[in-house]
Amino acid sequence: MTSRKTYHHGDLRQSVLAAALDVITAEGPGALSLRDLARRAGVSHAAPAHHFKDRAGLLTAIAAEGYDLLAAALAGTPELRERGVRYVRFATDHPAHFQVMFQPELLRTDDPDLVTAKERASAELRAGVADLPDVPDARAAGIAAWSLAHGFATLLLTRNITAALGDQGPEEYFRSLTGLLFTGQLTPESRD
Fold it and tell me: Which residues of 40-71 are buried (b: 16+ CB within 10 A; e: fewer)?
């Protein structure tokens, strides 16, 4: 029997994921390199490949984790508007996950962990419109609600609406927008 010398880093997988999230937050997913992440973790350049195989595997793991986090963020919130608020909060709390999750060209879309996580998040998104009264097409209503929350979160993260928010926090501003669009009335906060 030959003896193998092993190197134990602790939780290399989590270390690489954390470093990747930092890089994505600062520079976007295009800046990711397994070699750079290995250097940051203080391991050989081949070590991250043991957990992720390649860059697509790493990004897929980030997306799966993001969908799990999104599902957890939406769970237990019956009111549609507050689900939207939680969606926006998720995006601002997890900007790197948010960037990666919705770029299927970067991912292994058939990865079982990703598929399962996406299904959980989708179920939570659909649950927000399931009990709405007088909705002739729940699917279309769900897409409309998701589009509003996702579009707002994207504009927020890319700093395209910073000036429009003024002194109002993004969650309150989002509540005002939904009030304007779905009731046809301006709330006092949205009149400023």
Answer: bbebeeebbbebbeebebbbbbbbbbbbbbbb
